[in-house]
Write a structure and sequence with these properties.
Length: 155
């Protein structure tokens, strides 16, 4: 049992991914220079920087590992073993189902584990200022929580 219920593991070629992850993801490769990812939730609250002092380091570590794995497996299945984007722009579009005030900086900081997951599976080369720039970051109200991530390779 994981955070999102029962974990069922499937073999996809040489890789494994969970059925619960498949239901929560949508990965679209527009072309080799653009990747669009839809997650059916906002970033994990345990990764919010405001919670750093209130929780044990192991709680944050576990949430970071879950976020990396969540994005990693399905993106790897879609991306295969293509070359990583050496210079890229990543944009985040958050959709919340309620009207609570949310700090965009905190949402963006909570997405760091997803970025690290994209590096680990080979979509991004590295996340320093030379290789990755942050594009648009926005928050809107919608009928369901969702996060849309767009990764575009730059010339």
């Amino acid at each position: 049992w994981g955070r999102y219920g029962r974990l069922i593991v499937l073999n996809v070629g040489k890789n494994q991914c969970s059925l619960s992850a498949l239901a929560r993801f949508s990965v679209i490769i527009v072309n080799k220079k653009k990747l669009e990812i839809k997650l059916n939730h906002l970033p994990d609250k345990r990764l919010n920087p405001n919670n750093l002092r209130r929780q044990h380091w192991s709680v944050r570590h576990k949430a970071t590992q879950e976020a990396k794995e969540e994005i990693g497996w399905l993106v790897k299945v879609a991306w295969h073993d293509d070359k990583p984007m050496t210079k890229a722009r990543i944009s985040y579009f958050f959709h919340a189902k309620d009207h609570r005030k949310r700090d965009l900086d905190n949402l963006l900081s909570a997405c760091k584990a997803w970025q690290d997951g994209l590096i680990e599976v080979g979509v991004l080369f590295y996340d320093d200022a030379e290789h990755l720039e942050i594009g648009s970051v926005s928050l809107t109200t919608d009928i369901e929580d969702a996060t849309y991530i767009t990764v575009e390779e730059l010339p």
